[in-house]
Amino acid sequence: MAVHLLSWDPTKWDWRNIKEQSEQVARGAPVVRQWSCGSNRRVFSGDVVYFIRQGREPRGIFARGEVLRGSYEAANVDVQDAGHGKNTLVIDVRFTVLENAVDKVVLSRQSLTGAVLGKFVWDIRESGVKLPEPVVAALEQAWNAARGDAAIPEKPAQKPKPAAQKSAPAV
Q: For residue 137, how many other CB atoms are within 10 A of its CB?
């Protein structure tokens, strides 16, 4: 499973129903959207995506989701960076967390600093950028802390192996 960064810039595309969709996600109702993945043809079903708001403030990470359908071409789509009259590379995403980024974000752009997060270029030109593993780990830790979630282990804890029993000495 890979993790990708998708972009939303309200100066380029008006997400008219973000408020309603963020309320749906908060109630536990599924929200699925098509989203541009730039030129990345290697986004697959099951991958995780984070969304970053760019442009004017508030800038930062505001949503997380799961890819239901990996990269495919679609015509006449209503997504940011869609080529008018041309096919656009998109994915289908189910949001697991969606803040109304018109008002606030989960992780501000200024908070994406530090030893690991500060080395990544967050001001991406197009959606679909694959995040390196060290950045993913740091981002998920910061995301969980900002949301007040308990850390989600990546792998289930392994059960300790029973100690080898010593055989009794032969008499």
A: 14
If you average pLDDT over each of 53-57, 87-91, 159-163, which comes out highest? 53-57
* Chain centroid, CA 87 distance in Å: 24
Determine the 3-state secondary structure of 117 from DSSP: helix
Q: Which of 101, 98, 5 is nearest to 53 (CA)?
A: 101
Buried b / exposed e along 72-89 (16+ C-beta atoms within 10 A): eeeeebebbbbeeeeebb
User: Which tokens in the block code for residue 153?
Assistant: 């282990």
User: How many angstroms separate the CA atoms of 94 and 96, rounded?
Assistant: 6
Q: How many Å apart are CA 17 and CA 19, to the nearest integer?
A: 5
Q: How far is it, in rounded angstroms, from Cα 17 to Cα 78? A: 13
Compute the distance between CA of residue 61 and CA of residue 68 in angstroms, rounded to an integer: 20
The answer to whether the bond into 30 is cis (omega within 30° of 0) is no
Please tell me the pTM assigned to this model: 0.83
Residue 84 banded pLDDT, cuts 50, 70, 90: low
Q: Which of 20-24, 85-89, 121-125, 136-140 has the lowest mean pLDDT?
A: 85-89
